[in-house]
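### Sample
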Amino acid sequence: MSLLLGTTITVSSNHWMMAWTGLEINTLAIIPLISKSHHPRAIEAATKYFLTQAAASTLLLFSSMTNAWFTGQWDITQLTHPTSCLLLTTAVSIKLGLTPFHFWFPEVLQGSSKTTGLLLATLMKFPPTALLILTSPSLNPNLLTTMAIASAALGGWMGLNQTQIRKVLAFSSISHLGWMTIILLYNPKLTLLTFYLYCLMTSAIFLALNTTKITNLATMMTAWTKIPPLTTTLMLALLSLAGLPPLTGFLPKWLIIQELTKQEMTPVATTIALLSLLGLFFYLRLAYCATITLPPNSSNHMKHWQTNKSVHILITTLISLSILLLPLSPMIFTTT
């Protein structure tokens, strides 16, 4: 309830103090969920998350106070002072985990449970994204473009040598944030669409991983015997998150590249499209491990008999949407 309350306060507020209050409620609400398992890694993750978010919130409050000092405005949309704009971009980047402030996110996600990791990767990113969209006319386009390309590059590059699935999904999140940020100034609605589709695909993958108890590549290789249909659709959901046509994840990348080309930013569009190939490589490796291959050596993990374990209807719906939503894109376009 506190998570929903904090998110609602931040998204619906037009005063900086209310937005800061909502972010603080969010931070204090998620920390008990991260440290719930009482494992040393979970406590470490909760501590890292608290310190990072507290620093970002302080910077955000300082930015809004500086703007109010010079302009007399506490309205979120009236952020006009250059120093305040720079400080706000830094604060929101830390909260989101954009490069070069990404270091905390993979570690925190790895130390959390899958359900908490899902909240960290989706719901907790919504308030900072909303603040970025509200202040987008005041932000520096060159700085945002540089950070976006760096996030796409680092998310793809660092994901290549990971064996832990949660860390792979963390670097995937950083890469997707780069795609959302690069189009923010030119088409904020497209940023929101990208965020919604990313949340849809990530939720489907996290819930499927939670059902099959997959934590790393080794367990992914031996999990296909549990629920074969779910593992097969998990492979397709991973490829959709990679942005492979004709799956749903291709839609935001297609529209973003189209919009960047309209803005005469063809070199930027080419660069970020090529960088997405790095991410595609490790998604293909995950998909390959999920369904097509057996471990190349004797695994320490026990192979499971196929069970009649029922799959929740929510997982089925989310995975279906994350795979088959592309044909509905004309309808989405006409409504936006």
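The chain has two domains: 1-113, 140-335. This sample (NADH-ubiquinone oxidoreductase chain 2) is used throughout the tutorial notebook.
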